[in-house]
Design goal:
The chain is mostly beta strands. The protein contains no helices and eleven strands.
Length: about 120
């Protein structure tokens, strides 16, 4: 069982930056792939960034070069550094832990609003 708690969302102007953090409690954090998803009003939830248990990263084309995902297995945290934010980045961002053996776990979400 893994519990995930996101933090760091808020209101930022276009071009600004935010860092989202996800703190995980429970066992075996290091075996999970960790992902950040987002869901904008009226749209499906989409995968934004992923990092494997070994540290391999992948990004949605829409955020490549602007967002960076990183994890600290010693602290059971995964973070998403978001730079050059655009209004279309506005969404609720969710932390996800995924393991084929252990299943999927989700945080409660944190709102990111990019607006002037």
């Amino acid at each position: 069982q893994v519990q995930l708690v996101e933090s760091g969302g808020g209101l930022v102007q276009p071009g600004g930056s935010l860092r989202l953090s996800c703190a995980a409690s429970g066992s075996f954090f290091s075996i999970y792939a960790m992902n950040w998803y987002r869901q904008a009003p009226g749209k499906q939830r989409e995968l934004v960034a992923a990092i494997s248990h070994g540290g391999t990263t992948n990004y949605a084309d829409s955020v490549k070069g602007r967002f960076t995902i990183f994890r600290d297995n010693a602290k059971n945290t995964v973070s998403l550094q978001m730079n050059s934010l655009k209004p279309e980045d506005t969404a609720v961002y969710y932390c996800n832990a995924h393991s084929l053996a252990k299943g999927d776990y989700w945080g409660q979400g944190t709102q990111v609003t990019v607006s002037s």
